[in-house]
Amino acid sequence: MAIANNEQQVVWSTASSVSVSAGGNQTSDAITLSTACYDAMITMKADNEGTPASGDTVEIYALQSCGDPDGASSAEYPSDADDGVLLAVLDTYANDPMVKTVSLPVGAPYLKLYAKSNASSNAITVSACINEKTSS
Which of 2, 111, 121, 132 stands the most exposed, by the fewest C-beta atoms within 10 Å? Predict the structure, then answer.
C-alpha cells in the first residue's frame, strides 16, 4: 500500500485568498477530497489588513456535504456557520498574521470553508490549504 501526501489550495472565486470585511463573511469554492483520503489537515491563515485591535478574529467553519440529498442537481451545502463545524478562531490581535493547522474531518467528501469576521473595523485576508493523506 502506497501512502501519499497531497496538498490542495482552498480557493475563493478562483483566488488563493479572500478579503473578509469587518463583520462580514465569505464562502470558499467547493472542495472535493480524494476518494482515497483517509486523513487530512488544514492550515488556515488570517492577515489583518490594518492595525489589529482586540476582537479582530475570524472564525473558520467547514460546511460539509455528502452529495445531493434530493437527487436534483449536485452537492448541497449548509449555508452558514450555524450549520457548519467550527475548525478554528484566528485572532489577529494575538498574532498578525495568525496561522493555525488543525485536523479536518474527512467523513464527508465535499466541503466549503466559511470565514466569518468578528472585526469591528478592519478587513482580514483569509487563505487556507489542505493536506490529504491518501492510500492506494
Answer: 2
CA angle 15, 21, 27 (to 5 degrees): 45
Spatial separation of the C-alpha atoms in residues 46 and 60, rounded to whole Å: 10
Nearest one of 117, 113, 133, 18 to 59, comparing CA atoms:
117
pLDDT, tens digit, 9 for 90 and up, residues 66-125 = 788 887 878 888 888 788 999 999 999 999 999 999 999 888 889 999 999 999 999 999
- 123, 47 contact by CB (below 8 A): no
Residues 6+ apart with CB under 8 A from 72: none
- Which residues pair with residue 56 across a beta bridge? none
- Is pTM, for the whole model, over 0.90? yes
16 strand-pairing partners: none
Helix, strand, coil percentages in the chain from 3-state DSSP, rounded to 5: 0, 50, 45
